[in-house]
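Support request, please re-run this one:
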Amino acid sequence: MEDNWVSVYTTEHAWQAEIAKQILSENGIESVVINKRDSSLLAFGEVKVYVSNDDSEKSKELLKPLNIE
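Re-run finished. Output below.
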């Protein structure tokens, strides 16, 4: 991944990251999902969505509704 890509969304669930990626895609923003979760039975770690630095602010705004706990 190039240096100008930044993380705009982090979750413990791959399906949430895929929803985030779809939202970004529907708004014309290219994104990449990086799954850093351990594959053991104790699955821990994070799944992150990255976008280019130029799209980071718009992406964060679009993904705000996903950050509801």
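The helical segments are 14-26, 56-63. The CA atoms of residues 31 and 59 lie 9 Å apart.
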